[in-house]
Design goal:
8 strands, DNA-binding, alpha+beta, 220 residues, homodimer, 6-stranded antiparallel beta sheet, SH3 type barrels, Arc Repressor Mutant, subunit A
Chain lengths: 220, 220
DNA sequence: GCAACTAATTAGACTGTTCTAATAAAATCA
DNA sequence: TGATTTTATTAGAACAGTCTAATTAGTTGC
């Protein structure tokens, strides 16, 4: 008996927890664009339902049950994104908002069919892993482009944020998942990187952009 | 700024109006499985928004505005049903419930893409016409199987109800849209029809079933 | 360690959507 | 036409989800 609303709270807690293992009311409020007192009262409700662990004035954590529910919503979201890109011809910068609506559809058949038609994908169009039917998810060990040094050659594997504007910036520069990137130089002052790929002329990427790009060393 | 709820009321009024041009509170209540006082108060809200014409103790009618909104929701519903059947491999008996959820997605791009991928279909998997982007819909002149006489040969064109059970009954009997049906006899007492099609042995269909099957004379 | 700031909570209100119980109007039918 | 049944309405309550304003608890910086 999940409401749309509850699912959005769980998803937000899940995403924020990914970094620190917990989320505080203030962050949730900003992320969901819902005022703090509202978030606060919802935390009590989620705690009553044993979906989160909540004590006054402390950050919240998902319970095992809450984590599983959140992961399954994220599974639906990411399967949908993949379907929209692979089977319907949308761009990776167009699918987030649509998937946010479709993820709330209550029909396991529907998502099972997507999964099957896609050949049981492990990642979404942004390189993020798709949790399995039990809510288990495996993050391959990537690192941020930011953390690379001059001379490194790496493969673009995923983005950590999927905002329209960010993805369009990458589109314009023809940077796609799988692109092999060579770091030509790193500006000491502000972290701006100059990179080369696809035999194009060098591109410069700001620190903020490099912080949102995940890469793997060029082996496999 | 349509809510999910409002859309469901409009759709119900639209569907009930198809027959008589108007709908009363009692019917709406049964159809939506929402109690009469709730429906009643919603009628006032819809009237305030100029979506329906409502006077106490009288049936409601959609305004031009309300009719257009309803038709556009039905467009989304039927496009979705067609997509689920044609592009995802669902059966015509499986798609109604899923489409009821997806029809509320707010993204014209999403439905435009479906429409395009489907080659701009004019009918849904149950033979019902899909309203165009302006909410205009054309019903070809079909008649009920019920109204046919012994000896008539007709083509199965559409169903007037899409309940699971009804469609499964047709599945079991291999009755599909396009099937050419010959009426062998009609039972005078209860209207049961004996029909023949696809070179199978004759089948008997109850009056209720025949009432929900729309057919065309066998010309075009 | 206190002042100032930030984060979190409480209290109370409002909207949307639903309900039940009671009442009233309209329709039916004998 | 008057009694009965059906349909519709009003009144009032409830819950989910949101808000603002006021208060309290923690945190940070001298």
């Amino acid at each position: 008996m999940n409401t749309h609303t509850e699912e959005n709270y769980l998803k937000a807690i899940y995403n924020l927890s990914a970094v620190k293992g917990e989320a505080n009311v203030n962050e949730l409020s900003r992320h969901l664009e819902i005022k703090m007192p509202t978030v606060n009262s919802m935390m009590k409700r989620l705690a009553d339902k044993k979906l989160i662990v909540y004590e006054s004035y402390k950050p919240v954590r998902l319970t095992t049950k809450g984590e599983k529910e959140a992961a399954l919503i994220i599974r639906k979201h990411r399967l949908t994104e993949m379907f929209l890109v692979e089977k319907m011809g949308f761009g990776w910068d167009e699918v987030h908002g649509i998937a946010e609506q479709i993820e709330h559809v209550q029909s396991s058949d529907f998502f099972a069919k997507m999964d099957e038609l896609l050949g049981f994908p492990k990642i979404d169009p942004h390189g993020s892993p798709i949790p399995d039917k039990n809510g288990k998810m495996e993050w391959t060990e990537y690192h941020k482009l930011n953390e690379c040094k001059t001379g490194d050659i790496v493969i673009f594997k995923a983005v950590t944020h999927s905002s329209d504007d960010f993805l369009k910036l990458l589109n314009v520069r023809e940077l796609q998942l799988g692109t092999i990137i060579k770091i030509k130089s790193v500006e000491a002052f502000d972290g701006t990187m100059t990179i080369e790929y696809n035999k194009r002329k060098p591109e410069m990427l700001s620190h903020l952009v490099c912080d949102r790009i995940l890469v793997a060393n060029r082996k496999k």
